[in-house]
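Narrative progress, year one. The postdoctoral researcher (J.K.) led the effort to move from monomer predictions toward full complexes, under supervision of the PI. The following entry was the first complex the group processed end to end, covering 272 residues in total.
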Amino acid sequence: MLRDRCEGVTCGWRFVLAAVPGQTPNSAARVALVGLAAAVENGYDKTPHDVPRLSLASVRCPCIRTDVSYLGRIRRSVDCARLTAVSAPTEVPPIVAKALALSHRQGYLRSSRNETGRLLAALAASRNGLLAELGTGCGVGAAWLVSGKHADAQVITAELDPALATSVQKLFADEPGVRVVSGDWTELALHAPFSLLFVDARDAKQNVDALADLMETGGMVVLDDFTPTTSWPPIFEGRVDTLREQWLTDERFTAVEVMVTDDSSVVLATRR
Ligand SMILES: C[S@@+](CC[C@H](N)C(=O)[O-])C[C@H]1O[C@@H](n2cnc3c(N)ncnc32)[C@H](O)[C@@H]1O
């Protein structure tokens, strides 16, 4: 469907959605369906991970126009892909590939993007001790942590959904130093303090006090899935993003927001 390659890059649903400004409600719905189908068809290990986005200033792309030819009337000339994601190898570490394959099999669409994953791996490589994750999903974030960690560092991750937790336990069965806890993230408090903590369960992000208590001095909290903004306080969807504001101003942390792609950012908060 949208598998064709455009300038050597796999086309994906983000392209399509980005490519059709001024759409009517009906066409918007159809584009959304195309996008969903594309995500399923292409596989989550390909899209939306590492998906470049359309740029208005880029060259024309015959393959997109062919693949979604019925959208042609909406936009006569569909812009082609220009790689605006961060520069990175297209290959991922084998354990990450396994986790992405699990995501694909499960139809799980909430796994971390590769750009975030590469940041996790780089941070893991800078740490010793216990690296933790709240909200395992299909194990993609944990796999990136594992790919970067030192041999004697440990990774622990908690997932509320028992079926997911069981799948990921199997995924890491042969990986030394990895533990997948089936249960609420608060159960990881038993294992604190952490030197790195990837907070990827929505309700956990709100618990700044509890998370501050889980960190060793110098330990780093990573929170992803923010939308970059240049304003202060940070605005998201017309409102002050009080969660981000809190993380960026809490006196127990020295924090910074870092863009990992042009449409997503993470907050890094180091425990004082
Ligand atoms: C964004 S996904 C995690 C993605 C994963 N960290 C990755 O890097 O691919 C959030 C996950 O958190 C789990 N979750 C939600 N509430 C939770 C809780 N209270 N404790 C543990 N896990 C939770 C959800 O079941 C979901 O699988």
